[in-house]
Design goal:
Structural class: alpha/beta
CATH superfamily of the largest domain: P-loop containing nucleotide triphosphate hydrolases
CATH class of the largest domain: Alpha Beta
Number of helices: 14
CATH architecture of the largest domain: 3-Layer(aba) Sandwich
Distance between the termini: 46 Å
Strand content: 15-25%
Number of strands: 13
CATH topology of the largest domain: Rossmann fold
Largest sheet: 7 strands, mixed
Length: about 350
C-alpha cells in the first residue's frame, strides 16, 4: 500500500482507485490512468483497504455500505471513501494538497476576495463532485486567517481536509463522526461556541440547510457547498428541499442573507499539466434578492450576463476569459460551455476576432 500511495504523490495524482478486477487507477490532470501490472484480486483489495482503514470504519462499511474518513501518509493527507459494490470492497483516495491554497493560486476573480471579507451572510460554492469546491472554500478561509485577527473561524468537515495553522484568526476544525454526529447537530452546537465564520463542508439535507440559514440570519458568515450546477439551480434546490408550506419563508430568508453563489468546473490546463477552474458567479444584490423573493429565479441567468460590474458572470463568459488568457483550449471550453455560440462570440470580443476554433 505504501508503494501505491507514494506513486500517487510522485505522479501528482488527484485520486487513487482500488477495486477488484482492475489494476490501481490514478486520476492525473482529470484523466484516469491504469497502473502497470495485473488486476487486483478481490481478497487483495480488502487487505489493502485494511492497511489504512480504522476498524470502526470497516464496521460502518459492513453495516451501511460506505464510509468517509481522512488519514495522512508521509505528511500527505488523503480523503478516503471506502465502499461495497456488488459484494466487493473498493476505495477511492483523494489526495489533499500539502499547502493550503490561496485565492491567488486559484486565479480567483476579485469578487471572491470581497465575499470572503463579508462580516455576515451565506456564500455557497457549488459544482459537481471533484470540481474543487473544498479547495475554493479553503482558500477563502485562508484569506480570512491571513487578514483578520478578530474572528473565530469554526469548520465542520467530513473529513477534515486542509489543516489550517493559525496566522491571524482563531480556527477550530471539527470532524463529522468524531466531533459531531450530523452537520445539523454541528451547526446547532457551533452557535454556542462564539464563532464569527462557520464553514460547513456540505449542505446535504433540509436540517443542515435550515441551521445554516439561521446561522447566517443571526449575524455569522456561513460558507458551504451544494452539489448543484449553476446559481439558479442552487437557489431552487435549497428552496425545494423544504416542505411546500415553508418555501415562501425560505425564499424570504435566502433573499435577505444570500451574498453569493460560486458555481465552478475544472478544465485541463492548455499546457497539458494541471487543471484550471472556470466559474459562474452570482452576487446577492438587491436585484437578485427581489428575483428570489418574487419567484423569478428563472431570470437569474440574464442578470449574470449583464452585471459584470458587480462581479457576476456566466460560465461561458468565464470560459471565454480562460481561453483568451491561454489557460485552456477552445476545445476544452466547448465541452463545458452552456452555449457554444455565446462562448465563441465572447471569445471573439476578447481576442479582437482572432480565429478561435472551428
Amino acid at each position: 500500500m505504501s508503494d501505491l500511495l507514494a506513486l500517487a504523490i510522485h505522479s501528482s495524482a488527484s485520486d487513487l482507485h482500488l477495486r477488484a478486477g482492475e489494476p490501481p487507477l490514478y486520476r492525473v490532470d482529470g484523466r484516469l490512468i491504469r497502473a502497470d501490472g495485473p488486476p487486483i484480486r478481490s481478497n487483495d483489495v480488502f487487505d489493502l483497504i485494511q492497511a489504512f482503514t480504522p476498524e470502526d470504519v470497516i464496521r460502518i462499511v459492513r453495516e451501511v455500505g460506505q464510509a468517509d474518513f481522512g488519514f495522512a501518509f508521509e505528511r500527505q493527507r488523503f480523503r478516503v471513501n471506502v465502499f461495497r459494490a456488488e459484494g466487493e470492497w473498493g476505495a477511492v483516495l483523494r489526495r489533499i494538497p500539502e499547502n493550503v491554497p490561496t485565492l491567488q493560486s486559484l486565479l480567483a476573480p476579485p469578487v471572491f476576495y470581497g465575499l470572503a471579507r463579508l462580516p455576515r451572510g451565506l456564500v455557497l460554492v457549488t459544482g459537481p463532485t471533484g470540481s474543487g469546491k473544498s479547495t475554493t472554500l479553503a482558500a477563502m478561509i485562508d484569506l480570512i486567517n491571513t487578514e483578520r485577527s478578530d474572528v473565530h473561524v469554526l469548520t465542520l468537515e467530513d473529513p477534515i481536509e486542509f489543516k489550517f495553522e493559525r496566522k491571524q484568526a482563531v480556527i477550530t476544525q471539527r470532524e463529522l463522526g468524531t466531533d459531531f454526529l450530523t452537520f445539523a447537530d454541528g451547526l446547532r452546537a457551533a452557535m454556542r461556541e462564539d464563532p464569527d465564520v462557520i464553514m460547513v463542508g456540505e449542505m446535504r439535507d433540509p436540517e443542515t440547510m435550515e441551521a445554516a440559514l439561521m446561522a447566517a440570519e443571526t449575524g455569522h458568515l456561513v460558507l458551504s457547498t451544494v452539489h448543484t450546477i449553476g446559481a439558479k439551480d442552487t437557489v431552487d434546490r435549497v428552496i425545494s428541499a423544504f416542505p411546500r408550506g415553508q418555501q415562501d419563508n425560505v425564499r424570504a430568508q435566502l433573499a435577505s442573507i444570500l451574498r453569493g453563489v460560486i458555481s465552478q468546473v475544472l478544465l485541463p490546463h492548455a499546457s497539458g499539466r494541471g487543471r484550471v477552474a472556470a466559474f459562474e458567479i452570482m452576487v446577492g444584490t438587491p436585484a437578485v434578492a427581489n428575483l428570489i423573493r418574487d419567484h423569478n429565479t428563472h431570470q437569474i441567468p440574464g442578470v449574470l450576463q449583464t452585471q459584470s460590474k458587480e462581479g457576476m458572470c456566466t460560465l461561458d463568459q468565464s470560459l471565454a476569459e480562460r481561453c483568451a488568457e491561454g489557460l485552456v483550449t477552445f476545445e476544452a471550453a466547448m465541452e463545458r460551455a452552456q452555449d457554444i455560440r455565446e462562448l465563441r462570440n465572447r471569445l471573439n470580443a476578447l481576442t479582437g476576432g482572432k480565429r478561435v476554433g472551428k
